[in-house]
Amino acid sequence: MDGLDIPISLDAASLVPIRRQLVTQLRDAIGRRLLPVGFPMPSTRSLAKSLGTSRTTVTSVYLELEGEGWIETVQGAGTFVSQRPSTYSSDSSSRSGHQNASLRDVDPPAVLDMRPGVPDPEIVRSTLWRSAWRNVRPSNEPLPPEGSPALRAALASYLGNARGLACSAEQILLCAGTSEAILMAGLALNWRGRTVAVEDPGYAPVRRTLEVADIKWTPFDSSCPTMLPDLLAQLGSRVAAVYLTPSHQYPLGHRIDLETRRRILDWAADTGIAIVEDDYDSEFRFGVAPLPSMAGMDDTADTVYVGTMSKTMDPGLRLAYVRVPPQLVDRMTRVRQALGCTVATPVQHVAENLLTSGALTRHIARARKVYADRREVLLRELSQIDAVAAIEGIDAGLHVVVRLDPNISAGGLVEKVGRLGLRIADLDEFRTIPDLARPALVIGYGCVNAAEIRTAISVLRKSV
What we know:
With 464 residues, the chain is α/β, with parallel strands linked by helices.
């Protein structure tokens, strides 16, 4: 069998996006050994031509599969099947996102995945990718555990321009995501056996990461941002740190205003309690002005800022970074050096190219327009459902919170549409304690186009 004989059958009439069909079928073919280890994959151009789809789609699929470890690219030789991941199951698949697939114990067969946290890698132009990767050259020179000096300098410049966050390259350390950033901070600041305050509802992987690291956590109500200073003050010295998503609370979607941010920073500086500021998708704002990062407002507090390129480019990159205040540079750097770098060298060089060439900034501007259009379609379609009481969190990010009539079970509705192939989330999945009196859904729109949004909301409307 040669590369063009791969058993793939794409259905243009299906509600499942062509890209998702291709990812799933290739992953399954490799997992079931239909494509053995070492099998040479066809070029993106030839496979796209044989399937009658775009090269951009195939390139995006290859990048996702390579990021998951299914295939690997050898410079000058081509792309080949790797050893399959040990967690593979032929009847399941996963996808990257801010809230990972473990939200539900068993995922239904997906027709349309509209859970939060999933950007659309197809928005990235193939010419942009090719240009960035073309400049990457093989090298035997190991990069420092903290990351490429050139990339760290580029990130420092980017943060200064985009977030008003002044810093030096030495204050930037690379990591593979929010969870690793939490681990690094926990080790550097000696949180083991102590307690970290986390948002509720909030990002569940943070809680799991703390538990694995033998760090306790306590939830605080994140539904009313102006009350946060008082809620945190009540915790007093019982906590070592607090985890926040101030620019777009995950998953509720609100923003913490400037005055409230100042009060929280003053409290943290006075008590010596650290702050982890997760700025996971602040690039995507719609009709509202950007707010300065908390880390940029006051360096006297121990604020560890976490940024990522997963939402702006592709989750498969697994590229994130922390910006630490001057007083924490030495401790965080020692931890990073001890753990070693978890971001692949080629990925670091690609990210540097994207930043220094201005390609990332141009891509974000274009992606913001695409997502804004999808958001408008979603809001318009949701407004036609009588059972929708309110739509919240619409100013930023790639998802919205949909409040329902109190007599409706959000969990039951999620299961019902799931059986019909629509994957959305119940807000209670993000809570430590369910709130049955205030049913709500969390619906993402990052990885679905306008037609798919209309189809999905039609399914939801008929299921209420």
